[in-house]
Amino acid sequence: MAAAPCARIGNACEDFVMVEHDDEDAGESPYDGSDRLESISQYIESVSSSLRTMSLEIHDHPELQYKEHHAHKVLTKFLTAQDGWQVTPSAYGIETAFVAVYDSGKKGPTVSFNAEYDALAGIGHACGHNLIAVASVGGALATAHVLNEKTLLGKVVLFGTPAEDPEGGGGKIKLLNAGAYKDNQVDISLISHPGISPNAALVRTAAYSAFKVEYFGKEAHAAARPWDGINALDALITAYNAISVLRQQTQPGDIIQGQITNGGLRPNIIHAYSAGRFVVRSTTRARLEALKKRVYACFEAAATATGAELKLTPGGSYDDHMPNRALGRSYRHFFNRLGGEIPREDIDMIEAATMASTDQGNISYAMPSLSPSCWIRSEDNDGNQLGGPHTPDFEKAARTEQAHENAMRIAKALAATAVDVLTRPELLAEAKREFDEMKRADQRALSKQ
Prior knowledge:
The chain is of the alpha/beta class. It is about 40% helix and about 20% strand. The protein folds into two domains: about 35-205 and about 320-445, Aminopeptidase (3-Layer(aba) Sandwich), CATH 3.40.630; about 205-315, Alpha-Beta Plaits, CATH 3.30.70. It contains 13 helices and 18 strands. It has a six-stranded mixed sheet. A four-stranded antiparallel sheet has the order 13-15-11-16.
């Protein structure tokens, strides 16, 4: 055993001991060189140029959530031209969603990929969804290629999932609720998101909930007869200050964000109306429910203190992404064989955590899911770090040839993981067993709230 350096959490410093081991050293490795990684790599290299063209088409025509008509057309046209693929445009009543299926005709597991392609207002593809799209398309096509080449059992499904942005989005949740994944009997779900963090397999995201707050009071002259009024702005400010105090007692990983959108009409009026938008995040959806109760109490207390009437309107809500470790071990094995350097599982699980949120989180509570990160270079010529996702720097980085090459490596590793599931029943059984254990733990945690 080797003592790890001091781990710093906030201002505290805690020593801990880490046991040196490698996942595959724990037992005999299931990989004997007979897997299909070489075939997958060759296939993706053969279609990389076409995928690059498609990526640039999406990148250079940014479209907001549920308005991704150009991207939808580009992707479905390309997929329809592929042998053996059945493509359903505008699937499940969502105009810019699609479902593409490659079925071997022989009963077996169903592996799925999610493609994103929406952009951000004002800064285009600053989240790199053009790369997500082609990595998922490439991974799905390569899996189908091996399925056909090796006459394997099973099915590949590629979902076109619009509107990942939580501000009014949640395309995957709409597809999930409409029965898209259930109808296709999906066993596992795969996707990857670009960023400036190191490559990782076991990416965990935060649970997210947005809501609108409104207070209704009573107008009065603020100088002559203020006592006749009920100040809605006082209520909102009181709640905002209460939340600021609450932050001292929240746990690491609990985040509360707020914006005042309406602070009244004029300064010499007791304000009859005020409004704001707030976001609450936490590491798990069970933790989020507990935090929301405490935050809502701040708004309710402010209403009691001022006499204003409170109205809370729920907005978007995403579950945290719970990565499947069994799938992560497979992905890590193949990605590192392709030249990657994802650390061993215990370190990866810690380092890959992020407080960003995605609707892939909801998928991870419905089936075993993996959402590895994809590092792309957002640096100047001297190697100085530039902006990450949701910045103009990242929008430029998502268009580079190097970013495309990195996305193609992701596609290869995702496809290899999918094929691993199709060819090793014990892997799928392990992934599902872990998923069931996670769901039971989640239900226990939720029951305590």
